[in-house]
Amino acid sequence: MRNTLVCLVTAAVALTLGACEPASLTDARNQLGRSPADTTRYLLPLTRDTFDVTDLELVGDTIIGDLVAVRVASETARFPVLGDIQIDTVAVSALSISFPPGVFQVPAGTGLDTTASYPALADEPRLQGIDSLRARSGTLHLTTGNRLVEAVDYTVTLAGFRSATGATLTGSGTLPAAPGDGSYTTDVLTFDLAGVTIVPGATSFTVTVSMVVSGSPLNAANAANAIVQGGTADLVVEWLRGLLDPQATPELTRAVEGHVEIPVGAVDALGKFKDVIRDVTIESAFGRLRFQNGSGAPVDLSGFTLGVVQLTPTGSVPRDPVTGEPVYETDDLGSPILVPVPGGGQSLVVGRNAQASVDVEMPALVDRMVHLLLDGHRAAIVGAGTATAGDGQQSYLRYTDSVAVAVDAFVGLDVTLPPEGVDYPPQNEINDGLDLGPDDIADVLDNLLVGAYATAEVINDTPYELEVVIAYVAGDAGAADVSMLPGAVVLAPVHVAAPQLTSDGRVIAPVVDTVEVAVAPADVEPLLTTTYTTTVKPRFFAGGGGNGRAAFGPESRAVVRATVVVDIKKGGAQ
Amino acid sequence: MRRTALVAILGATLAGSAVAQAVPDASPATRVPAAFRRAPQLRIDPFRHVLVPHWGFVLEGGGIAANNALNLSDIGALILLNDSSAMLTSDLLNTVNLVPAGNPATGDGQGEGGLYVGGPFGEHVSAGITLQGRAYGSYLVDRDAVAMLRDGNSVQQSFDVGSTTGQGLGTAELGAHILVRLEPIGSQDGARFSLGFGGRYVRPVAYAREVTTLQDNAPILISGDSVAAAVSLDAEYTPDMTTNGGSGFAADLLVRVEWPTSGLYLEALAANLGKVTVNDVERRTLAFSVASTDLSEISDSLDAADFVVQDTVPVDVSLPRILRLSAGAFANRYLQLDVSASLPMGGAFDIPVAVDIWSTWRFTPILPLRLGLVLGGTGGIGYTAGFGVETRRFYFGALGGSFGGLFENAKGVAGRFELGVFF
Questions:
Q1: Tell me, what's the pLDDT at B142?
Q2: Per-residue b or e along A356-383, where b marks 16 or more CB atoms closer than 10 Å to that residue's CB
Q3: 3-state secondary structure B270-329
Q4: Which of A408, A508, B368, B389 has the fewest CB atoms in 10 Å of its CB?
Q5: Closest alpha carbon to B266 in B319, B193, B204
Q6: pLDDT single digits (tens) A312-331
Q7: Angle at the Cα of A426 from the Cα atoms of A466 and A469, rounded to 5 degrees
């Protein structure tokens, strides 16, 4: 029953429709197009791109103030506080031994001994504030003189000077007999101070002399100051301890210099902004300097500056052959680009085993450094100044102690553009088209398409004037610049004015503009295919409000919405 | 039911004392047996045959279907283009453009076929049994959804899928209908009052329904640079055609009063009062959600979307309830005029109001020719025609209709045949 009914209905429908079937495809199309002629407008999305800092693929970007910034370098330089501090020409106090005249009026062959002690370092103020020190190296030269006509044996005990084993240094020698005319014969004892611990306050040299009296009458005239002793020492300090007073010990104040190479790859953190930055001048850059004093003495950094140098091919800091100073990169006026730290003529005191942090603005330095790196040069940041250790309080310094300076250099996206503008990294979008077959595409282009144009709405919340070029091509072009491909449709550039800016280049209010761009009917074809690729290329120009300078904030963006508007003919076939 | 039967018996008893009221012999209505004086219908009419006061059977079949956009030539053109694999975008756009502006795309249809067996029980009661198959179907594509293609997205970019629905139901039915003639009653020629009632046991054979809804009532946005849509397609259907998938009951009622002299009659018919429970209905949902400015994500989302079977449950389907008000009279001895308005009273498969106007020409009483008009409905103004052979022993009727235009310009068609033999 059911099947019979279905068959009957199917037959009836087939019969009816068969009778109504047009004779040809043309007739069929005319039949469907029997409605009155009409035009319908469709909006075909072309692209929608938002350009903001995320497109720059920055690495480690941050917000400083209202500015987007990128840390392009994070390197640490070390400045030895003590280093190879050297105390030269340490003066040993003079010793003079005199004999009473009658002491020689004894039978010849009589032995004569005497002993004298003296505070050997009492006259060396540089060591007075030092409780103790150990020398890494150095020598002490003790010169002993004799104007007696007898040869004199002598022994010197250097109380306050202890060897690495704890033994008090001693030395002995023989002073030749003098001619008796008042002149001295001398003997020099040399002590190696390497590893010797010196306690200046407890230093006392004891000299013991012995001789055999000859009975010469000449000794009577030479008995006064018959034996004299003095000396000097030069030493390199391994450590020192005490109430370190730079005023008393000038050696605690020394020039320091260090450099750290910024790897070429550091600018990779700028992502695609690296391409932009070649043509611009960086107006905002910051250095965040963190000082870590690893010594037991406070360090006062004064006159400390940062500069940038182009390293030699071997990685050395280039130096002026005359002055020996680093050859710093210079600004447009030829002056070295030097950034005082902390600036304002101030010095920076880093407490013992303490940290200190300083932020400095250094746009010129970073701009130069980045451009050096972008040009493939080796660049280094050089820090130089004067470090003074000690404050008169108990301190302890080792030659290995240093102040480490970690330099984080941030590039702010605050630039001055050249008059010709700069290209922003283009964006590609791969879109699904209407997926029409070849016949359909031909049908649309030949029969249906009445007209077309493109609209581009641009919301410009960047501080720049914008020029946007939109191009599209059928197929998946990947990341290639579509405008360079054969068969690409390149729309006329869209110009959008810059927003009003504050004096330092910040956007006051975004600009929204809509521009219509003519599109030839044949240019619609890529949109009808399965896939099409668009490339949107913005080019930024300086707006009028910032004197060529503008800054990217976290909210800065340009939104480009492009739509192709097509008018499609319908009906009107009959 | 018991009360109705009591009224019928009382009426039959009273009728015997009232037959003395006279009907003029020249009355045109007397030329036509009462059973055939009722207006023909291209639509469902459960009491069609039980009015025949003779034992016999009738084979019948018919259907009516219409839409508001495509005529037969359009459909033929689409078939030709599709069969030739030559369908172009312009053809589809032109097809959508045929939907009247500002309207949804709609279509509906009903069909039936079966066998009636019945006859009178005495002078005042007739009863019959019908064994039929019926099918109902309708679709509606919301005007917003149509507008997306028809009117483009330059002016309107927010679209609602509204109540976009497609549904169909096939049933096998066994019905019993009784007509009680209460005649004559207080008028000069003894107006004849008839009361009919009946019921049908309905077994669903197949059922399908798909409804598109917007998630969270968020409209579809199609702008020049982005698309946002969250659409759910809820489908219910019986995977297999079966007669074991549930049951239901439908009641039909008829009230008719007729004045024999003029042939004037007034009639009210209520049909399909009931619902059917369809068992083993598989419910599936396809959810498509996308909000993107990257249009390639849209196709990805569509590719990923798939129907998810929710459950298999019994579903109650209300049959399309109809209230039909009819009236007719003889203009002269040759011409009978009838008019009926079929009003939807809810239920599934909504059918718009339709008014059928018939003129029946009886130059020979047993060979009526019928011409008519249909106003309203889905397809627009329709033209109907038919003829019949109406004798004591034999009955044949054929009706046809063309809506929204004639023949190949028709947006809807209807047809019915009836073949009866009476003893």
A1: 84
A2: bebbbebbbbbbbbbbbbeeeebbbbbb
A3: EEEEEEEEEEEEEEEEEEEEEEECCCHHHHHHHHHCCCEEEEEEEEEEECCCEEEEEEEE
A4: A508
A5: B193
A6: 989 899 999 999 899 999 98
A7: 50
Residue B361 gets the label, from left (phi > 0), alpha (psi -120 to 50) or beta, of: beta
Main-chain phi, psi angles of A392, to 5 degrees: 85, 0
pLDDT tens track for A358-369 = 988 888 998 999
Considering only CB atoms, which chain B residues are within 8 Å of A40?
93, 97, 150-152
pLDDT, one tens digit per residue, over A367-399 is: 999 899 989 899 999 989 998 988 888 999 888
Residues A216-231 pLDDT 10s: 888 888 888 999 999 9
**Amino acid, res. A7:** C
Of B88, B90, B154, the CB nearest to A565: B154
Q: pLDDT (tens digit, 9 = 90+) per residue, B134-173?
A: 999 999 888 877 887 777 777 767 777 667 888 999 999 9
The closest of A388, A282, A289 to A341, measured between CA atoms, is A289
pLDDT at B288 over 50: yes
pLDDT for B151 equals: 78
End-to-end Cα, chain A, rounded Å: 44
Q: How far is CA B130 from CA A286, B48, B134, B200, B389, in A?
A: 95, 11, 12, 9, 22
Cβ proximity of A67 and A414 under 8 Å: yes
**ipTM score here?**
0.80
Alpha helices of B183-257 — where are they, by DSSP H? none
DSSP code for A333: T
- Measure CA A330 to chain center: 17
Q: What is the pLDDT of residue A80?
A: 72
**Which residues of chain A are within 8 Å of residue B111 when distances are taken between CB atoms?**
5, 9
Within a 10 A sphere around the Cβ of A18, how many other Cβ atoms?
A: 10
CA distance linking residue B52 with residue B54, whole number of Å: 6
> In chain B, what residues touch A33 (CB-CB under 8 Å)?
90, 94
Amino acid (one-letter) located at A536 = V
The pair phi, psi for residue A505, each rounded to 5°, is: 90, 20
For residues B8-27, give the mean pLDDT.
49
Per the listing, tokens 């009914």 go with A5
The CA angle A318-A322-A327, to the nearest 5 degrees, is: 25
Q: Are A174 and A154 in contact (CB under 8 A)?
A: yes
Contact A32 B77 (CB under 8 A): yes
Of A128, A129, A126, give the one whose Cα is nearest residue A85: A126
Tell me which of B80, B169, B294, B299 to substitute to probe the interface with A (most A C-beta atoms closer than 10 Å).
B80
Helices and strands, number each (H, E), in chain A: 7, 35
What CA–CA distance (Å, rounded) separates A361 from A358? 10
A436, B89 in Cβ contact below 8 A?
A: yes
Measure the CA angle with vertex A253, ends A249 and A259; round to 5°.
Answer: 155
Please say whether the beta carbons of B169 and B133 come within 8 A. no
What tokens were used for B268? 């009210």
* Sign of the torsion formed by the C-alpha atoms of B72, B74, B80 and B83: negative
**Tokens at A325, concatenated:** 């100073």
The answer to whether residues A526 and A473 touch, using CB atoms and an 8 Å cutoff, is yes
Residue appearing with tokens 């917007």: B214
